[in-house]
Amino acid sequence: MAARIGVVTFPGSLDDRDAQRAVRVAGAEPVALWHGSHDLEGVDAVILPGGFSYGDYLRAGAIAALAPIMTEIKDAAGKGVPVLGICNGFQMLVEAHLLPGGLIRNAHQQFIRRDQKLVVENADTAWTNAFRRGEEIVIPLKNADGGYTADAETLKRINGEGQVAFRYAGVNPNGSLDDIAGLTNEAGNVVGLMPHPEHAIEPGFGPNTPEAMRSGVDGLRFFESALRALQLV
């Protein structure tokens, strides 16, 4: 039986269908979940997708972090269920205190859209085990509130304990401290990042590579990693 991975839709979600497709391409069954529900429907993992939940009022992800389904996601995460937050989903995870720090307006106050190089810093999580530590990958990025921030003590801790999952390479697109593009929790089952792996899963639709235009599929390994992790549980 295929693993079942839930994708939560919030008011303002834009990439929920893309995340569902990525789950399907990786070989799992996508399950559509609703922000107002308290039922995770027995899924094996959860994805919080990109978008502008609740119009980014207050702060990006702040209202979504209080949605009814987040109560169930926090409980599931505490029990080891893999949870991935992509862009707006990453913002939700920090607002819900499932990941440390915060995300603020991009440097120069601009919306940024680009194919972004990342360095894999932690390849031992539920969502990164198909990568190698130190590997450079290319994942599309599109955000206005992607600047990672944290106090000095938090930065020292997450760097020292291996909680930085990805760093920006080549250029820091949004002013994130320490070039941080993504984080993991201490247990390694919760991962959040600003770039969008669901937009790099199929040849012909991903980032350009030296081999061919739009041929990049580095994002697919995020979802394959989850399947590998679930087989070990």
UniProtKB/TrEMBL annotation:
Keywords: ATP-binding, Cytoplasm, Glutamine amidotransferase, Hydrolase, Ligase, Nucleotide-binding, Purine biosynthesis
Signal peptide extent: none
Localisation: Cytoplasm
Catalytic residues (UniProt): 87, 196, 198
SUPFAM superfamilies per UniProt: Class I glutamine amidotransferase-like (SSF52317)
Cited InterPro entries: Class_I_gatase-like (IPR029062), PRibForGlyAmidine_synth_PurQ (IPR010075)
Gene3D superfamilies assigned to the protein according to its UniProt record, in alphabetical order: 3.40.50.880
One Pfam match: GATase_5
EC annotation from Swiss-Prot or TrEMBL: 6.3.5.3, 3.5.1.2
Pathway in which this enzyme or protein is active: Purine metabolism; IMP biosynthesis via de novo pathway; 5-amino-1-(5-phospho-D-ribosyl)imidazole from N(2)-formyl-N(1)-(5-phospho-D-ribosyl)glycinamide: step 1/2
Main location as per UniProt: cytoplasm
NCBIfam families xrefs: FGAM_synth_I, PRK03619.1
Functional summary from the UniProt entry: Part of the phosphoribosylformylglycinamidine synthase complex involved in the purines biosynthetic pathway. Catalyzes the ATP-dependent conversion of formylglycinamide ribonucleotide (FGAR) and glutamine to yield formylglycinamidine ribonucleotide (FGAM) and glutamate. The FGAM synthase complex is composed of three subunits. PurQ produces an ammonia molecule by converting glutamine to glutamate. PurL transfers the ammonia molecule to FGAR to form FGAM in an ATP-dependent manner.
Subunit structure: Part of the FGAM synthase complex composed of 1 PurL, 1 PurQ and 2 PurS subunits.
Protein name: Phosphoribosylformylglycinamidine synthase subunit PurQ
Organism of this sequence: Microbacterium nanhaiense
Gene field: purQ
